[in-house]
């Protein structure tokens, strides 16, 4: 496995996420190429986890959509979909799975996947997409935006997330959990 000190692939993945968040396709593609090269180097040195291989492919698909350079590659999407169903790591990657399903022309399946995410969010777990973007930022969910069913789901998601945040603030005010500010002060103290 690659020396832990060399984190080029992690830097490339974070840069790709930032480029996606700001919708800069050329930047995304450039970082994705670096990311994939680094993963290939790691593959030659040992095991590479499936999520490491799927993420840069998904990022490239999104970058291609942004640039409108090429039509959607359904063979690539089907390959990603197959990997998502094959590996348990992806079980809770709702936005990723919904995004792939919607691109494969399965909006009903995508919306059913998102409904599952609300059940898992009940204990306070709100997902991010595969590169760390929220529902509001994620390009993965763009094909569903504007559909009444998606808008309804997103409204309920935001309400649930807001309720959880309020609950956490109450716990914090009662001293039952430590605040971010307290953690920062502790980190800054000598």
Structural class: mainly alpha
Largest sheet: none
Order of helices and strands, N to C? HHHHHHHH
Q: Please, how many domains?
A: 2
Count of helical regions: 8
Strand content: under 5%
Name the average pLDDT: 82
Helix content: 55-70%
Distance, first to last CA: 36 Å
Unreliable residue runs: none
Shape, per Cα inertia axes: globular
Which oligomerization state do the chains in this entry correspond to? Answer: single chain
Labels describing this entry:
mainly alpha; 0% strand; 8 helices; 2 domains
Summary of the model, kept short:
This protein is mainly α. Helices cover 66% and strands 0% of the residues. It has two domains: 1-70; 72-190, no CATH class.
